[in-house]
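Second opinion, please. Pick holes in both lines of this record:
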Amino acid sequence: MGSIWFSKKSFFYFGGLAVILIGGLVVVSSPYHYINYSVSVNQQRPWTIYNAAGYYPQVEISISLRPSNTTVVLLDLVILDNDTLDTTSLNMTLGPEHQVIGPDVTIYEYSEIIDLAPGNYTVYFEKVDGAGNIDLGLNQISDSRIWIVSGGMMNIIGIVMGIAGYLVPGSFLPSDSDTIVEWGYDKEEKDQ
């Protein structure tokens, strides 16, 4: 009888476990840079655009808000480069076409992708007309989806390997009779 560590069953069990753990590490180490703020007029928030592998010099700006007694909301977002003091302005007009379908409360959502060079920035709303607090999401575009999909596929493969290990015939540990024969007790009984 061979060692239990080199059986098909243990290969599928432990190999599947290793593939699941490696897939989890791939997902956790994906390049992902996202932050969400709840802001109103002139509240400044910091933001950094990374200059590293897997990150691109673009940011997705997501807005979610509840309009107050009006159907059209005007927003002026200013992105200030802390090094050069250059500003990037983004003027947004949100109306009923941006309304989220479903909830009883009126909620507007808007998203836009802009190009920004790597560096440190300060983000604030210079003008807000028709809304109180705004949920501002900043997400740097990256290769995170590729990492998450590949890590998730590894997790699925690991689960399939674990199921295959369960379905492989035989037992994971040797039976009592096989253990006794392997340890040599059967030979002593024949000598008597």
Q: What stands out?
A: The domain at 31-142 is CATH 2.60.120.380 (Jelly Rolls). The mean pLDDT is 85. The chain has two domains: 4-27+146-191, 31-142. The first helix runs from residue 8 to 28.
